[in-house]
Amino acid sequence: MLLLISALRPIPRALVRELKSLELHGPRAREAAKRVLSVLVAVATSSVLNLDDLSWAAFSAYMVMRGSVVETFRRGLMRIVGTAGGALLGLLLAPRTANAPLLLMVFLFLVSWIGTFQSLVTSYSYAWLFFGLTAGMVTTEALASPDAVVHFAATRVAEITVGTCTCLVVASLYSDAQGRGEKPAHDRLWCGRLCDVLNEDWLREHWPLVEHCTRAALAVALLPLIWRWFGIEEFSQTAVTSYVIMIVPSAAVGNRRYAAIYERIAHRALGCLLGSAVALVSIGLFGTGLPVTVLTLAAGVWIGYQIQTGREINYLGTQFTLGLLITLVQGPAPITDITPGLERLVGIAIGSAMLCLTTAAWPLDQDQ
Q: Which uninterrupted H or E stretch holds 364?
């Protein structure tokens, strides 16, 4: 676990440097303002539509935005299609897993493995990411509320769609210039199809990829044991964390640069902790009035984006924004209880811990 410690050590100083480099003017500040506007409009729209979890709409509005309208549209379409496809598969699997934890674990393993694999080898990685993510979330919902699975799946698709469409509307209001802080997409090391895993030669050549996907799927599939053991009722963030952290650039997997995985664990845990802490401090000091909530949300998203597009701790900036949103933006009504935000934060910690346990039981090559 030396890699995890190494990933944690430089974060405090890097965060201080990033905060000192915040820009009040210029392209980077304008791109941050676009995200702020997109998130605020998404939250307002979702509130009017009385959706269950506004944070999904808000985070979609934040994450889909790109400097180019064309790229924003492409990314948004993949997010919606992947979410809808995963929700449909989850609905098909959910009735069979409601009272069968072992079968649930098998299904979680399969959808997580497929989602991770396809995210690393296809041109539509963003769609496959949300396919696996949503299928797993809808399937696990059957364990908590079997009668509410259809409603859960439908509202999840609606929340993602509202946030994405809001983002597209806001993006269209700006010029189509590429933002200075935009990072180019990582080139894929591999191209392949699911059926390729049956080919012995392909399997031998791409074994690091298969290992990586299997390790990620195991971390998600074993979560029902943790949920039952500790009586956890907030499932989603544990599954989301274990799954999403393992979606790393394929070149890092192919070259066995596993430090990237530990870095994502550290950045997700600390980023969400900081974002949630900012939201909780704001609620504790200033209450939950609309003006204060809007100002905190706008400032947090603006800062989070600038950290995300900085030079050192990009993923921490993304997770800071996520932590802020899941704590400060919950349902259609004003916040009256901070418990949901705390439960989600605990879920993130448990998901990260499960990944650490999985890699301890099945060490990465660099750890051996």
A: none
Distances (CA, A) of 221 to 139, 181, 215, 225: 12, 36, 10, 9
**pTM listed for this prediction:** 0.84
Cβ atoms 189, 253 nearer than 8 A: yes
Domains: count for the chain? 1
Domain assignment present for residue 184? The answer is no
Range of the domain at 285: 2-175+191-367
90-101 per-position pLDDT tens digit: 999 888 887 788
Rounded to whole angstroms, the Cα distance separating 281 from 296 reads 10
User: For residues 147 and 238, is the Cβ–Cβ distance under 8 A?
Assistant: no
Max mean pLDDT range (195-204, 224-233, 274-283):
274-283
Distance CA 309, CA 234 (A): 31
91 falls within a domain: yes
DSSP 129-167: HHHHHHHHHHHHHHHH-GGGHHHHHHHHHHHHHHHHHHH
Q: What is the DSSP string of 288-338?
A: S-HHHHHHHHHHHHHHHHHHHTSSS-HHHHHHHHHHHHHHH--SSSPP--S
Within a domain: 181: no
Residue 183 resides in a domain: no
9: Cβ–Cβ under 8 A, 6 or more apart, which residues? none
